[in-house]
Amino acid sequence: MLVSLGMHGQTLKSPNGNFVLEFSINEKGSPLYALSYKGKPVIQPSRLGLELAGGSKTEFNAEIRKQADPKTSLYDGFSLASVKHSAFDETWEPVWGETKTIRNHYNEMEVSLRQNSTERSLTLRFRLFDDGLGFRYEFPAQKNLSYFVLREELTEFALTGDHTAYWIPGDYDTQEYDYTISRLSEIRKLTEAAKTDNLSQTSFSPTGVQTALQLKTQDGLYINIHEAALLNYGCMHLELDDKNFVFRSWITPDANGTRGHLQAPSATPWRTVIVSDDARDIPASHITLNLNEPSKIKDPSWIKPMKYVGVWWEMITGKSEWSYTYDLPAVQIGKTDYTRVKPHGRHGATTENVKRYIDFAARHGFDGVLVEGWNIGWEDWFGNSKDFVFDFVTPYPDFDLEGIYRYAKSKGVKMIMHHETSSSIRNYERHLDKAYQLMNKYEYPAVKSGYVGDIIPRGENHYSQWINNHYQYALEKAAEYKIMVNAHEAVRPTGLSRTYPNLIGNESARGTEYQAFGGSKPNHVSVLPFTRLIGGPMDYTPGIFEMDISKMNPNNKSHVNATLANQLALYVTLSSPLQMAADLIENYGRFPDAFQFIKDVALDWEKSIYLEAEPGEYITVARKAKNSDQWFVGNTGGNTPFTSDISFDFLDAGKRYEAIIYSDAKDAHYKDNPQAYEIRKEIVTSGSRLKQVSVPGGGYAISLKPVK
To answer: What span, in angstroms and rounded, lies between the C-alpha atoms of 37 and 233?
Structure first.
């Protein structure tokens, strides 16, 4: 049972009755909430509130004062003004996604609070779904709270014990870490070790972690803490009191240390808590999407999932380079004459090379080709804090923009644009309209944008309110030009793809590129569905068939810590409407039978069923292709062997299906024998079962098609 919360207790139950939320105000006038699931406490009584900034910059990073200042307190001195209960139930259709329809069913409690000493009002809105909780702060229009600045958000998540956590360290500038699995009490000592595993060394609390944070209790409850609808606000991290196991929100600050500049009426993003005693329910939850507004794009017919190849992996591995020459130590956009310098001969985005990829895409039925390094400016783009760094419209001399467009169009292939901003936000915004206009001229349907390096304006963080507003500006501007966006290094997604479905992909986590930067943990891809993917799909760039990077670049001794079968499974387990076959195209010619699965697998889904799941150990998913009778199954394992045992009861009764199973060979291993795989065909029905071993770092993939 929950501990008593104090005065003015209010209760809200989920539609199925499994969740109970209790709200109260304590003797200091501070709002509190608690959450239980099937009678078990999940969140103990936890504080809610915010503190406003005062007049001095030195106050912004100070600890919250013991004595509340009425001028800055939005965390005590409240009384209950009113409580309204309501219910909501709808079914909506996403433009693309894991399912054709999504049910949005919740019970809501709107709590209106009044702070008598300041005559200010604050609304707390709670929504309880059958799989968890969403809540946010709302600021009604009022005389005494119009324009205001946040010093801190004081939201707490008081946990019931020393849970197992699947976490990456707090960082204002990158999410590209391998996950650490540990007890909460171990986070402090492990944080520094985790940070040294990444290029970023952002200063942050030694007990700070990022969301989406996955937890598991000793008695088998799975808890996920994240946020939804991140708009006009800084990204939420979590800081842990590791003595009492209480997380407190830690909002990414702006350059001046404040957490947000707001104007009433407005609201914060939703804070989410997804809970189940079955791990499969966590990645299957739609809470994050449901807490976002419906699509603002009235006619989304131009938004189409894409499967693509591209001139990328050869740059990542060091086989070729983004830049055209070595001879320009200081590039001046619009003034440098590239025709007078000698190319170094390792440029990847040449007309000849790109045509090879276009031919490959056309031959194998891929929708698009991504080209990076096509535009001038790459010689000194990184690490120089350079404002005018790219213009996004001028190609290198060896990239025929017009000719490539005509050639791709003649082959029925779309080109995908690349905009690396070098995190010069002002520069990107000053060029954005012309860059998108160029895309329209040459019929580029999608752009991969990048934000590598320190933010300009200098001192800003990648996930602050100011920068998040830029990502949103670029997304909405793209929608005006009917362009889809795949943002890399941007803030992690929070379900905004419901409102703006042209946000067709994000990176925002440690992707395949790190396999060429020393490697990722073999179980990394079995953690991502419980963490990063809670907010939306990831452009993970799977499909690597050659694991020994030195075969592409003798100077790079990295190894891809996955089996070939694992790489196939990722197209199902890491669902995305934008999927890349990321390897060098010549490597696919060595394994044409395995490559067939990448060609066959769907991008958009009628239905998704999570068959098996345990974070960091394994995940098995079955998905039915939209407007098709075909199913696809994917399994990825972890650090140790796993025997998958699944039923095909999701198939239509009375039908026979040909199952093509792509699996690890018995002697496969991600490190020693990653390319050992087997392909076999079986006839299965809804009554069939499959037992299949996935080796360390391995997995399997299945395509299922009805037969007569």
So the answer is: 30
Closest of 278, 230, 23, 239 to residue 128, by C-alpha:
23
Kindly state the tokens that stand for 541: 């760039």
pLDDT on residue 708: 85
φ, ψ for residue 610, nearest 5 deg: -85, 115
Give which of 372, 408, 377 is closest to 394, Cα–Cα. Answer: 377
Instruction: Report the chain's mean pLDDT, rounded to a whole number.
Output: 95
Q: Which of 504, 620, 557, 538 is nearest to 176 (CA)?
A: 538
**Confidence band, pLDDT 50/70/90 cuts, at residue 194:** confident
Q: Which residue has the tokens 């060098």?
A: 584
Query: Comparing 72-86, 198-212, 310-324, 527-541, which segment has the lowest mean pLDDT?
Result: 198-212
d(CA 361, CA 412): 9
60: pLDDT confidence band, cut at 50, 70 and 90? very low
Q: Where in the chain is the domain with CATH 3.20.20.70?
A: 306-594
Contact 511, 539 (CB under 8 A): yes
For the purposes of burial, counting CB atoms within 10 Å of the CB of 426, is it exposed (0-12), middle (13-18) or buried (19 or more)?
middle
Q: Cβ contacts of residue 429 below 8 Å, gap of 6+?
A: 470, 473, 474
Locate tokens 């795949």: which residue? Answer: 486
Rounded Cα distance between 169 and 194, Å, is 7
In angstroms, the CA 531 to CA 214 distance is: 6
**Which of 51, 314, 513, 606 is the catalytic position?**
513
Backbone angles phi and psi of 516, in degrees to 5: -95, 0
Do 565 and 603 touch, CB atoms closer than 8 A?
no
Residues 6+ apart with CB under 8 A from 345: none
Domain 7-159+227-290, CATH class in plain words: mainly beta
Assigned token pair, 620: 């098995």
What sections of 239-393 are H helices per DSSP?
A: 281-284, 287-290, 313-316, 351-364
CA distance 419 to 429: 12
Q: What is the 3-state secondary structure (H, E, C) of 164-223?
A: EEEECECCCCCCCCCCEEEEHHHHHHHHHHHHCCCCCCCCCCCCEEECCEEEECCCCCEE
If you count them, how many residues does the chain have? 708
pTM higher than 0.90 for the full model?
yes
| pLDDT number for residue 61 | 42
What single letter denotes the amino acid at residue 550?
S
The end-to-end CA distance of the chain, in Å, is 56
Query: CB-based contacts of 266: which residues, under 8 Å, 6+ apart?
Result: 138, 139, 232
Alpha-carbon torsion (196, 197, 203, 209), positive or negative: negative
Residue 57 has pLDDT above 90, yes or no: no
Contact 281, 222 (CB under 8 A): yes
Does the structure show a pLDDT above 60 at 642? yes
Q: What is the dihedral of CA 602, 294, 279, 538, to 10 degrees?
A: 50
If phi over 0 gives left and psi between -120 and 50 gives alpha, with beta otherwise, what is residue 565? alpha
Range with the poorest average pLDDT among 15-24, 175-184, 292-301, 321-330: 321-330
Q: How far apart are CA 595 and CA 273, in angstroms?
A: 39
pLDDT for residue 205: 85
Taking 80 as the threshold, does the pLDDT of residue 195 lie above it?
A: no
Six-digit token pair at 502? 């042209």
Active site residue 513: yes
526 contacts 619 by C-beta, under 8 angstroms: yes
Instruction: Starting at the earlier edge strand, list the strands of the sheet with 484-488.
Output: 503-506, 484-488, 446-450, 414-420, 368-371, 306-311, 578-580
- Quote the CA–CA distance of 213 and 283 in Å, as a whole number: 12
Please give the Cα distance from 454 to 384 (Å, whole number): 9
Give the integer Cα–Cα distance in Å for 708 and 628. Answer: 16
Q: Which fold has domain 306-594?
A: TIM Barrel (3.20.20)
